[in-house]
Each structure stands twice: as structure tokens, then as C-alpha cells.
């Protein structure tokens, strides 16, 4: 499983860090990041919800190998 | 060929008497008929109202085809071309809401780091203190009290002033102007005059901060790449948005809760339910007036072929009550999962201050209900004029105790 944030698109809304704080945080500029791959699998559902709520569709959650 | 859809004149805005929470009935009726409605604006422009959730989200998400540039737009009920001719002025410097990419993103990125979830949560303790001070003042004053001026307005006002570094002592002056701009009760001349007065006030404030920086957000922006004009415009936008919006949510939210004691009990007694409860109040009340966008090219939307240069009004209040997205949408249900509502907008312009507003509401609603568990309405709550840009209350008498 992989979680990526397209930083060029990100609008710094904070929806990801609000929805799935185990997976996402905002950096100094307010942009979304998913810094810790070890958190992804356990919180896959929350990460997918955050991807759906991201106002600019900047988050991709891909399952499989 | 476009499918046949209803046509209206302008933008239905009149709310039903005694129903301050429901969107204008005419708009709700149209939304039931069709997720997109044709509208003949006052200046003759053939625009559209977007009323369905899925279409509203689609438009707001697509800033490449649906622009925010004010100079390209028509207003549904005001003929600006009568006043300005064909040259509608663009938004003022620093007005993020009226810009497209890349200009919008350039400015927004100078601000996003200041409004993160984490930074806003760090204000929790201060928000609790400010709330407690105002609850003490209410208790001292004794019932009846006007909840709008004693609670809903001062808490967000004090917080945005502290965050930006705007003198709180001068609040009566800028509050009055913000009320004129957003409230809907002022004439067009008064609105314009207040808008300029706010601009001048903030230009002077920002000039002082650029010369002698203090420890606050507006001073820190001096080091960014903003021009002084943009800096002043951003100050006006943040001050106005910070004062007026959360205040409206607090006032209307308390009114809605007082009418539904079982819902008020959830907000008061179940701390774990509070974040979700705030989202549901945001969805249910949807205080922002319809969000305008203008097509930059011919688009196909909801079975309609819409030419370039067409203004669409995205009615987030009725979109948030679309039963294809939210079950039993007319019910206030603080335990529902309301995430995904459009009350803070959607897309690149989604509210910059949303994490601040959330923390303020998460603190203030339960604190009020715990302090005065038998709070009740003690007269008539007065709503803002129907054409207010932010729906809200002008006064709301409350009482408690014997
Ligand atoms: C509950 C309260 C609030 C509501 C309902 C609300 C609603 C909205 C909406 C619907 C938009 C999108 C407008 C568009 O797409 O054209 C927006 C944008 C914005 N809001 Fe809020 N807002 C609230 C609180 C705040 C606060 C507290 C602040 C400031 C600290 C703020 C600052 C802004 C700014 C600067 C924008 C423009 C963002 C951009 O264009 O990129 N808002 N707000
Ligand atoms: S939700 Fe999307 S836009 Fe908002 S901070 Fe996260 S990645 Fe950026």
C-alpha cells in the first residue's frame, strides 16, 4: 500500500490531518504529507476517507503491490 | 441539445418566516426538481444555479474551467454593468476569493502554514480562556442577555484580533463596517463606504506593522513576498472573515440547539461527539450564500451545454441538503457523519480559516451549554436580511436560572 500527496496541487486545507491524523500531517507551509509508511496499512480506511475529502484531489491511496 | 430544466429569475433568497435554519423554500423546491437550474439574472445574463451536491462539488473542484475572477462575473440580482459599464473591476489586491491560479496559489501559500490543524489546536487553551471570560461576563450581567453581542460575536472577534495583531479596542469601528458589508441590512452605498473604510483602516495598520513589526501574523507577513497592497487586502479579508462567520455559526447553532434539547444534550454531555456535532451544524446551517463561478470555456454540466463566460451560483446550502448524499437531510442529527459537506466550500478556495473556526466552535458550544444548562430563548431571535452574504442573527435574547 502507498499513500502519496501531490504537493503542487495541495491547497493546505488541513482536511487530511484533521481526518486521518495517524497518517497525515501538514508541513511548515501547511502542505499535506504522509511521512510515516509504517502507519499506512493500519489506518488505510481513514487514509482513503481523507483522500475522498481532500478538496483538490491531491491524495492517492493505492492498495496492492 | 441541453435537457429541459426549470428557469427562474435571479436568485431566490427569501426565507420562510420562523424558519431561520432552512434554505429559502423556493430554492429547496428548485433543488428537488433539478440539480441545475437556469436563471435569468437582473442584468439579463443567462446564468445557472447549481443545487445538487454532486454537481456543486464538481464545479468547485474544477478551478481550471470554473473561474473565481470577479471581473468576468455577473451578479444574479445586481446590475453592476449599469454602474461600471462593461469594465467590471477585478477583486482588490489580496482578495484570494477573486483570483485564479497561479496568482491565487502564490498568495494562499504564504498563509496556509499559519492556519494548519496543529497551529489552530495550539490555540485551544486561549480559546477556552476567552470563552470563560465571556461566560463570566454573561453571568455577572444576569439574564436576559443578547447572546449575539455577549457571546457569539466577541469570542471570535477577540481571537482573530489576537492572531492578526489588530487592536481589540477598535473593534466597534471595524465590526460595524463588517456588519454593513456582510449583513445585508445596509444600502449598496453604505456597503461600498464600509468596504473602503475597512480597506483604509487595514492599509494604515499594515503600514505601521511593516515599519515596526510586532509579534503577530500580520507583522510576520512583512517578510513574505506580498506587496503592501496585497498585505492590506489580506488583512481585510482575514479580519472580516474571522469576525463574521464563526459568530454567525455560534448564534444560529445555539438557537438550533435550544429548540432541540435532546441534540443540545449531546453537545453538552458527550465530549467525544463534539467534533462530529460541529460538522453537522456546519452542514445543517450552511451559512455562506451561494458561491459564484464563471465558465472559462464551453462546458457540459448535468446535461446542459453551457457557453464560456456564464456565471454559475453554487448553492451550498441546498447542496448540503441533497438526499442523494445525506439521508433525511432536513433533520439536525449531531450523531450523523456529516464530513464531506460543502459549508466551507471545496476545491482550491476551500476556507483557509476552517481549522480555526472548528476549534472555536468545539470549545464554545459545549462551554456555553455546560455553564448554563437551562439556557432558554427569552424573546424573539432576529435574523439578518435575506440577501446577507453570511446568514446569521442580529440579536437573540436568552435567559437561565429561575
Ligand atoms: C464557520 C465559519 C466559516 C465559514 C462558514 C466559512 C466559509 C467559507 C467559504 C464557503 C469559503 C469559500 C469561498 C469560495 O470558494 O469562493 C471560504 C473561504 C475563505 N475563508 Fe472562510 N469560513 C468560515 C470561517 C473563516 C475564518 C474564521 C477565517 C479567517 C481566519 C476565514 C477565512 C477565509 C479565507 C481567507 C477564504 C478565502 C480562501 C481562498 O479563496 O483561497 N474563514 N470560507
Ligand atoms: S487535504 Fe488535500 S489540500 Fe488539504 S492539506 Fe491535505 S493534501 Fe493538501
Automatic annotation (TrEMBL), chain A:
Cofactor: [3Fe-4S] cluster
Domain of life: Bacteria
The keyword Metal-binding appears for this protein: yes
Keywords annotated in UniProt: 3Fe-4S, Electron transport, Iron, Iron-sulfur, Metal-binding, Transport
Residue ranges annotated for the 4Fe-4S ferredoxin-type domain, each copy included: 1-29
Pfam families noted in UniProt: Fer4_15
Keyword Transport: yes
GO molecular function: 3 iron, 4 sulfur cluster binding; electron transfer activity; iron ion binding
Function comment: Ferredoxins are iron-sulfur proteins that transfer electrons in a wide variety of metabolic reactions.
PANTHER family: FERREDOXIN
Protein name: Ferredoxin
Lineage: Bacteria, Bacillati, Actinomycetota, Actinomycetes, Micromonosporales
From TrEMBL, chain B:
Alphabetically ordered keywords of this record: Heme, Iron, Metal-binding, Monooxygenase, Oxidoreductase
GO molecular function list: heme binding; iron ion binding; monooxygenase activity; oxidoreductase activity, acting on paired donors, with incorporation or reduction of molecular oxygen
Heme recorded as keyword: yes
Any single biological process term in GO: antibiotic biosynthetic process
Domain of life per record: Bacteria
Pfam family, one: p450
UniProt KW rRNA processing keyword: no
Location of the region described as Disordered in the Swiss-Prot/TrEMBL record: 1-26
InterPro entries reported for this sequence: Cyt_P450 (IPR001128), Cyt_P450_B (IPR002397), Cyt_P450_CS (IPR017972), Cyt_P450_sf (IPR036396)
Family: Belongs to the cytochrome P450 family.
Name this polypeptide is given: Cytochrome P450
Organism: Actinorhabdospora filicis
Amino acid at each position: 500500500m502507498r499513500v502519496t500527496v501531490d504537493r503542487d496541487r495541495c491547497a493546505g486545507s488541513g482536511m487530511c490531518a484533521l481526518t486521518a491524523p495517524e497518517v497525515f500531517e501538514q508541513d511548515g507551509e501547511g502542505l499535506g504529507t504522509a511521512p510515516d509508511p509504517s502507519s499506512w496499512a493500519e489506518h488505510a480506511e481513514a487514509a482513503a476517507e481523507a483522500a475522498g475529502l481532500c478538496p483538490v484531489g491531491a491524495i492517492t491511496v493505492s492498495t496492492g503491490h | 441539445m441541453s435537457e429541459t430544466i426549470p428557469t427562474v429569475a435571479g436568485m431566490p433568497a427569501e426565507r420562510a418566516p420562523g424558519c431561520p435554519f432552512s434554505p429559502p423554500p423556493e430554492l429547496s423546491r428548485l433543488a428537488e426538481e433539478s440539480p441545475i437550474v437556469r436563471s435569468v439574472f437582473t442584468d439579463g445574463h443567462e446564468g445557472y444555479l447549481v443545487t445538487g451536491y454532486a454537481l456543486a462539488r464538481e464545479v468547485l473542484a474544477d478551478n481550471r474551467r470554473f473561474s473565481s475572477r470577479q471581473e468576468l462575473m455577473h451578479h444574479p440580482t445586481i446590475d453592476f454593468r449599469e454602474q461600471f459599464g462593461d469594465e467590471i473591476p477585478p477583486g482588490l489586491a489580496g482578495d484570494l476569493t477573486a483570483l485564479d491560479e497561479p496568482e491565487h496559489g502564490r498568495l494562499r501559500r504564504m498563509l496556509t502554514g499559519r492556519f494548519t490543524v496543529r497551529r489552530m489546536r495550539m490555540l485551544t487553551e486561549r480559546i477556552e480562556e476567552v470563552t470563560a471570560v465571556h461566560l463570566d461576563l454573561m453571568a455577572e450581567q444576569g439574564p436576559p442577555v443578547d447572546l449575539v453581542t455577549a457571546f457569539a460575536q466577541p469570542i471570535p472577534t477577540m481571537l482573530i484580533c489576537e492572531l492578526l495583531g489588530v487592536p481589540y479596542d477598535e473593534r466597534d469601528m471595524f465590526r460595524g463596517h463588517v456588519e454593513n458589508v456582510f449583513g445585508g441590512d445596509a444600502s449598496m452605498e453604505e456597503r461600498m463606504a464600509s468596504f473602503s473604510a475597512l480597506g483604509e483602516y487595514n492599509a494604515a495598520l499594515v503600514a505601521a506593522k511593516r515599519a515596526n513589526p510586532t509579534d503577530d501574523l500580520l507583522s510576520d507577513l512583512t517578510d513574505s513576498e506580498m506587496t503592501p497592497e496585497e498585505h492590506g487586502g489580506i488583512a481585510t479579508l482575514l479580519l472580516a472573515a474571522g469576525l463574521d462567520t464563526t459568530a454567525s455559526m455560534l448564534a444560529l447553532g445555539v438557537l438550533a440547539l435550544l429548540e432541540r434539547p435532546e441534540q443540545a444534550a449531546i453537545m453538552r454531555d458527550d465530549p467525544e461527539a463534539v467534533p462530529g456535532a460541529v460538522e453537522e451544524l456546519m452542514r445543517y446551517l450552511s451559512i455562506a450564500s451561494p458561491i459564484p463561478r464563471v465558465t472559462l470555456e464551453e462546458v457540459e454540466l448535468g446535461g446542459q451545454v453551457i457557453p464560456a463566460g456564464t456565471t454559475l451560483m453554487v448553492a451550498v446550502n441546498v447542496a448540503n441538503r441533497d438526499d442523494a448524499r445525506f439521508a433525511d437531510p432536513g433533520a439536525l442529527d449531531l450523531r450523523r457523519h456529516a464530513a464531506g459537506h460543502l459549508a466551507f466550500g471545496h476545491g482550491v478556495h476551500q476556507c483557509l480559516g476552517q481549522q480555526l473556526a472548528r476549534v472555536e466552535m468545539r470549545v464554545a458550544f459545549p462551554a456555553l451549554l455546560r455553564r448554563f444548562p437551562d439556557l432558554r430563548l427569552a424573546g424573539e431571535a432576529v435574523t439578518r436580511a435575506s440577501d446577507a452574504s453570511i446568514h446569521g442573527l442580529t440579536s437573540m435574547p436568552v435567559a437561565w436560572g429561575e
